């Protein structure tokens, strides 16, 4: 099964993401939308404990690209599935960080911050 995966999505279900971002509903919405679009066999969704990005709640990261999303709600699910997962264009309005060619995480210019990712 892992050979057929195109993407692996990690969605934070830590306390901040549950309170601010309705993480459990977001996880369920992604799974439903992936089934509806026929992408469920190609994209794995995993719930993970705190990703230490509470300021970015609801946090999620998409690999292999290394795109970190912030503030994801159920309202964003359909757009992320269509635009990022199907069309391979991350939804820039929700991207907090992305992985550079050098392997470093770069903060999105839409969300400037002095924070450092460790």
Q: Could you characterize what this model shows?
A:
The protein has 118 residues and is of the alpha+beta class. The protein has helices spanning 15-21, 23-36, 77-86, and strands at 7-12, 43-48, 60-63, 67-69, 95-99, 105-107. It has one domain (2-107): Glutaredoxin, CATH 3.40.30.10. 26% of the residues lie in helices and 23% in strands. Strands 2-1-3-4-5-6 form a 6-stranded mixed beta sheet, with helices on one face.
Q: What order do the helices and strands come in, and which of them pair?
A:
Layout: E1 7-12, H1 15-21, H2 23-36, E2 43-48, E3 60-63, E4 67-69, H3 77-86, E5 95-99, E6 105-107
Parallel strand pairs: 1-2
Antiparallel strand pairs: 1-3, 3-4, 4-5, 5-6
GO molecular function, one term: iron-sulfur cluster binding
Pfam families: 2Fe-2S_thioredx
Keywords: Iron, Iron-sulfur, Metal-binding
- Biggest sheet strand order reads 2-1-3-4-5-6
Structural domains: how many? 1
The DSSP helix count reads: 3
Distance between the termini: 32 Å
InterPro entries: Thioredoxin-like_sf
GO molecular function: iron-sulfur cluster binding; metal ion binding
Protein name: (2Fe-2S) ferredoxin domain-containing protein
Keywords: Iron, Iron-sulfur, Metal-binding
């Amino acid at each position: 099964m892992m050979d057929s995966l195109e993407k692996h999505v990690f969605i934070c279900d830590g306390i901040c993401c549950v309170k601010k971002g309705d993480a459990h509903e977001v996880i369920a919405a992604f799974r439903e939308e992936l089934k509806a679009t026929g992408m469920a066999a190609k994209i794995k969704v995993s719930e993970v404990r705190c990703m230490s990005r509470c300021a970015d709640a609801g946090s999620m990261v998409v690999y292999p690209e290394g795109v970190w999303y912030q503030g994801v709600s159920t309202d964003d699910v359909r757009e992320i599935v269509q635009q990022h997962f199907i069309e391979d264009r991350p939804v820039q309005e929700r991207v907090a960080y992305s992985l550079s060619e050098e392997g470093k995480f770069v903060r999105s210019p839409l969300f400037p911050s002095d924070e450092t990712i460790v």
